[in-house]
Amino acid sequence: MAAPSDEEGAVGPRCHHRSSAMLDVPFLPFCAFLGTLGLLCVAMVGTWCQHWRGGFSLDGSSRTFNWHPVLMVTGMVVLYGAAALVYRVPNTWSGPKLPWKVLHGSLALGAFILTVLGLAAVFSFHNSQGTPNMYSLHSWMGLGTVLLFSCQWVAGFGAFLLPWAPTWLRALYKPIHVFFGSTILMLSVASCASGINEKLFFSLKNGTMQYKLLPAEAVFANTLGLLILIFGVLVVAALARPSWKRPDSDSPDSRQ
């Protein structure tokens, strides 16, 4: 068989370059789409709890529980996803790095605060109704994710924001921090999806609104779960894209 000519051999690289260029998406439009999708998830979980689950209250009833899905989706998925993407913004690639570190840590801290409030809401509801805590897979996975997130935030604060952390420690911990950042986000998405499913099983029981009959509430909540999953996958994809990663720098500011 004859060897391909130089012109024929160049077709493959040219086609690969052309297809790569076609698939290349600028970060800022992608980020705008992702932000819109995140806001849609928050709006939908709020609409679900307000329209079908009776609204919100602090009286220990099921309306107190309704704060739980809203705060968890807002904190552990949307706000946490925004924190994860801070270093993908091109404006962060030059100049002092410390302000972006503070923004990243602050967004993560805000997500953690909302998460704690969401946990307080569900524990308050369970205790007031005499319902046992921590008996389902959703509760185990959710609390485990929050505990892992807590360790991640404390370790990140100590390694990257405190001035006395040695450079070698930061270099050693950075890939671990990045790995667990994506892992926590996907665990959060899985916890939210299982929580939505569990709530539907508990709530849709009567003959006219059984879950298996797929009433409007089930369609709406299942769609919400799919959108949360898509949001999480897109954030992880953005984190893994090489062209969107902040270039490593050996400047003194990067070792601040």
TrEMBL record:
Transmembrane stretches, start-end: 27-49, 70-90, 102-125, 137-164, 176-197, 218-240
Gene encoding the protein: Cyb561a3
UniProt name for this protein: Lysosomal membrane ascorbate-dependent ferrireductase CYB561A3
Cofactor(s), names only, from the UniProt record: heme b
Membrane topology reported for the UniProt record: Multi-pass membrane protein
Compartments, as annotated in UniProt: Late endosome membrane; Lysosome membrane
Gene3D superfamilies linked: 1.20.120.1770
Ranges for domain Cytochrome b561: 33-240
SMART domains membership: B561 (SM00665)
Source superkingdom: Eukaryota
Enzyme Commission numbers on file: 7.2.1.3
Keywords assigned by UniProt, alphabetized: Electron transport, Endosome, Glycoprotein, Heme, Iron, Lysosome, Membrane, Metal-binding, Oxidoreductase, Translocase, Transmembrane, Transmembrane helix, Transport
Reactions catalysed according to its record: Fe(3+)(out) + L-ascorbate(in) = monodehydro-L-ascorbate radical(in) + Fe(2+)(out) + H(+)
Xref: Pfam families: Cytochrom_B561
GO molecular function, one term: metal ion binding
Subunit structure: Homodimer.
Main function: Transmembrane reductase that uses ascorbate as an electron donor in the cytoplasm and transfers electrons across membranes to reduce iron cations Fe(3+) into Fe(2+) in the lumen of the late endosome and lysosome. Reduced iron can then be extruded from the late endosome and lysosome to the cytoplasm by divalent metal-specific transporters. It is therefore most probably involved in endosomal and lysosomal cellular iron homeostasis.
